[in-house]
Amino acid sequence: MQVTIDGNSVEVSSETTVLEAIRSLGGDVPTLCFDQRQAPFGACRVCLVGVEGAPGPIPACTTPCRDGMTIDTEDATARRVVKAVVELVLSELPDPPAEHTELAVVARGLGVGEPRWTGRRHEVRHDQRHPYLAFQHELCISCGRCVRACDEVQGAFALTATGRGFDANVAAGLDAGFRNSTCVSCGACADTCPTDAIIEITLLQMSDVP
């Protein structure tokens, strides 16, 4: 079947998602909860795009293509919502994300700077009970990538999503830390984390060196 993306036509299969179709043409849209090694989750709503005839923007990572679909990756409504979502995420962090993180890259690409809103922010809370990995809980944005990497990629099932809303976070085991969980020290969670909420301890120590 055929879809049109920003005026360019492309042939895709019925299993192709809108995000995959966009990337097949060399285009892209920002994502935070998406990792191509994992099943699409559709939680962050940062990959929103416009589709002709749709009542509003749709998430590109979880929406399958349909024949004749016309997609606009620069849809004004989608861009406005996405920028607001990223700005809200940043507003909850105690400090700006490190420049190399995916969150910082996405924010720069969207032109999102210092959040306009002020309010409750996450308290700094570090967990270094694991010999190799550290949790920086204040940087968790509840994208779910670490949990899914642990479950779908490694099959260790060591991580659990906890809380709701502003208090949502991730815990290892029964919140007893990595050491007392089923963690196998593969590092998949740190590798996929878009904010450094989970990071190798050596990298965290290096970042503390002036």
Account of the protein in words:
It is a single chain. The mean pLDDT is 92. The protein is globular. A five-stranded mixed β-sheet has the order 2-1-5-3-4, sandwiched between helices. A three-stranded antiparallel β-sheet has the order 6-7-10. Strands 8-9 form a two-stranded antiparallel ribbon. The N and C termini lie far apart (55 Å). With 210 residues, the chain is an alpha+beta fold. 26% of the residues lie in helices and 16% in strands. The protein folds into two domains: 121 residues, Ubiquitin-like (UB roll), CATH 3.10.20.740; 82 residues, Alpha-Beta Plaits (2-Layer Sandwich).
Number of domains: 2
Count of β-strands: 10
* Order of neighbouring strands in the sheet with most strands: 2-1-5-3-4
Extract low-pLDDT stretches.
none
Strand content: 15-25%
Helical content band:
25-40%
The main pleated sheet reads as: 5 strands, mixed
Q: Roughly what is the average pLDDT, rounded to an integer?
A: 92
SSE order: EEHEEEHHEEHEEHEH
- Total helices: the number is 6
Summarize it.
The chain has 210 residues and is an alpha+beta fold. Helix content is 26%, strand content 16%. The strands form three sheets. Strands 2-1-5-3-4 form a five-stranded mixed β-sheet, with helices on both faces. It has a three-stranded antiparallel β-sheet with strand order 6-7-10.
Summary keywords:
single chain; 210 residues; alpha+beta; Ubiquitin-like (UB roll); 3-stranded antiparallel sheet
